[in-house]
Amino acid sequence: MLSLRNFECRYGSVRAVKGIDLDVASGELVALVGANGAGKSTLLQTLCGFVPEWNGEVSFQGAPLRRPLKPAEIVKQGISLVPEGRALFPPLSVKENLELGAYVRYRRGDHKNIAEDLEFVLELFPILRQRTKQPAGTLSGGEQQMLAIGRALMAKPGLLLLDEPCTGLAPLLVLVILETLVQLRERGITILLVEQNARAALGIADRGYVIENGRIALEGPASALLADANVQHAYLGKECRL
Amino acid sequence: MRYLFFIAAVLAAGFLTSSPYKLQLLTFIGINTLLALGLNMLMGYTGQISLGHAAFYGLGAYTSGVLTVHYHWSPWLGLAAAIVLAVAAAFFIALPLLQLSGFYLGMGTLGFGMIMFVVFRQMSLTGGDSGLVGIPGLFIGPLSLDSPRNYLFFVWAVAIISIFLCERLIHSRIGRALRAIHDSERAASSMGIDTGKLKVHIFVLSAVLAAVAGFLYAHLVSFISPSSFDFLVSVRMVTMVVIGGMASIWGSLLGAAVLTVLPETLTVFSEYEMIVYGLVLIVIMILLPQGLFRGVLDIYERAGSKAGKASARSQG
Hints:
- The complex is a heterodimer of chains A (242) and B (316).
- With 242 residues, chain A is of the alpha/beta class.
- In chain A, 39% of the residues lie in helices and 26% in strands.
- The longest helix of chain A has 16 residues, at 171-186.
- Chain A is globular.
- Chain B has one domain.
- The A-B interface holds A 48-50, 70-72, 74-76, 81, 83, 87-92, 96, 99-101, 103-104, 106, 151, 155 and B 173, 176-177, 179-180, 183-184, 186-195.
């Protein structure tokens, strides 16, 4: 579904991602893990059109993505991002935030399906149903993360990108978010999950990539990566338990 | 329902007032409402500052004025030309300017306002500093709008229709997108919103409303001069929006009313107009950041809920 070849992004003279090959097959949940500053978020930001300088090839659903990548175009193509820090619209209500997620679909006259998807999101996150009229800024951190995921789903994406969705959440909420991602995968949604919390991410993923200093250091089935001695040493720690 | 009440209020005000002065004051409130409404769509809802909107107001007034006085066009063709010119100018200006944001956008629009002010002053067609005299009144078929009362109804009909359309727009998918841009352009663009295009469109809309207001103004007073469209007027428009309430359509009406009536009633105002606007802006920003309309409503609601609690307590 998504395939990157020799993908490189830079901020001026700084190369943040240095030639990466990465594939996400349809229906797969792929985790991209790595330390702070390894280039994980830059990769997602570039894919979504926020970092203008990049090289290499990007193809989505078999066709190369046209340059320059523009954020609005990317969404129309079917790639939705749940950004780091959520980037909700705090003064707007929960419902309005969700409706904004479906912005690109209204023009296509997709109204009936949008209503169905709204219902789907509210079933996925029942707590949001009680808060539809509340401004998004008044939600708790966990609820905001659910809203951010729900909003991205409203675009009915072929590929869902998540940038550190577990950061700053209590362990119990992390589990809720992870379980949701598993549910979404079971429903056939393709997911690329970027996470610092390697154990959590690899725990639910089909396959994983470990990124270090802008390069792929390791890749393989998530279970193999979890068992890998290097990964355990560098990212999981001996005593670390979720 | 709100609109019926509103229309009834306008009709009542129009028929119960006989003094031409007061009728004209009410008409000015309508014209200023159009100005505030347009700027509020841009500033209040979309979060894009314009300190040069008087330029579009002037463009509307002068286009129709020059075409009717010098070329004897029908005012309605003058209006059409004014709108076309405002759309063109707004597009032309918005494309480079809306790349800017915050203070830079403010400075850019300020510059545009000043350029247009100089154009109004220097062109021979506009009459320069001494202004343009003899702009004809309006007719709708055989009906003359010369009487203050007819003009009042006409202006308010335009204002009410504009308010209605703007309110529809705000509650649509586009309105949500505008508010999203206000909040974060980046986040808005990752919803698939073409933020650049939408910002240009809303800038054009607000310019058109200002130009229509300019047209109504020119054909009401029949004499226009550059000082009616200077920097102070742009500041007054911003003050109307802030006083009434950013992102409040009905607040625009209130802001326009306050800033139309106050300078007339407090004549001491005229010399210190700038200072008073500055002070009003500061005070409102600090005490009622959501504007008079929302702010007073909030105070009223809070007082109501307190009173409710107090009575519940005394009963309990």
